[in-house]
């Protein structure tokens, strides 16, 4: 186990994640083009079926399960392109990933952000 | 002879670019951020660099997972703003400095830094937001820009030490260029932030402050930080700060801090900014 696996609530985009998520991230990359964004919005299931993703990856996309996408090898800079296609801000997605409402998340950020205290390591958190 | 006179460290938060592009700079949330760069805009107008070497990372815009260069230098005549999923930012096309860029690329390779040479590349918010913060909204950017992209998306990014030494080699390369050019190096990204997962929103003001302090007081302490320290203390995306060390390496040993600004929050990020001038400048 790498040292960074001890950090709570964090998935480091290492070789294992990158290999697992290659096609998911390539799908996200396709959303850089306006015509592809339109095709995705018109029929999401048909669009994700164009890519050799696993069914679990496809479902995480269709259900907008942001943490699920990361678990399946998605990288946030890639999955952010789905958020952009949906017209969501980064902060809205961050709120969903951390399991709070957008207003709760925004209030936390205005108060200085999530504290590092208690968030350094899984052992510290336990 | 070309010379590097100063370094600028700054976050490159995409929401800052969006706030500027959508005319929200006077809103209470954003006004303090833009006020924090008023000094810097005057400063750079006085310095009038001929070329900016802008160290940044691409965010899955020019480079997907098909090709992941650790260090890439843009040698083209110009670089278009990238469409990151909501259309390109309405900012001027970035004009390159191909003579100097090619000279630096060759010098770096012969100095054993195996650069990827890029002749066609769109540039995303990582490069254009720092330009917007320092220059506002001009019709044309007032100087040429050499994009220097560092991989910080695929783990592991280059070490802080490697980035610092790359900066050293860039300094040597610039100083061996015969044309009389004034160069400023930007190190961008950071500071503490985490954009993903249940720990999203992490900010560590103490870490950020120490990092800013050590840019002048003890650069070696920053250079020695291992990746785990950034990931744990500054968030998974806080590791972008290694790019500031390319900038620090490109400066003299002795620098003076001319200006500093730190603000929380800018979207999800601890926004940090520093201006360093070479003592001899």
Q: Which features characterize this protein?
A:
heterodimer; A: 126 residues; mainly alpha; Protocatechuate 4,5-dioxygenase, Chain A; 2 domains; 0% strand; globular; B: 281 residues; alpha/beta; Protocatechuate 4,5-dioxygenase, Chain B; 8-stranded mixed beta sheet; two-stranded antiparallel ribbon; 10 helices; 10 strands; 33% helix; 22% strand
Question: How would you describe this structure to a colleague?
Answer:
The complex is a heterodimer of chains A (126) and B (281). Chain A has 9 helices and no strands. With 126 residues, chain A is mainly α. Chain A has 2 domains: 76 residues, Protocatechuate 4,5-dioxygenase, Chain A, CATH 1.10.700; 38 residues. In chain A, helix 7 crosses helix 8. The longest helix of chain A has 16 residues. The model of chain A has no long low-confidence stretch (mean pLDDT 95). With 281 residues, chain B is α/β, with parallel strands linked by helices. In chain B, helix 4 packs across helix 6 and helix 6 packs parallel to helix 10. Chain B contains 10 helices and 10 strands. The model of chain B has no long low-confidence stretch (mean pLDDT 97). Chains A and B meet through helix 1, helix 6, helix 7 and helix 8 of A and helix 7 and helix 9 of B.
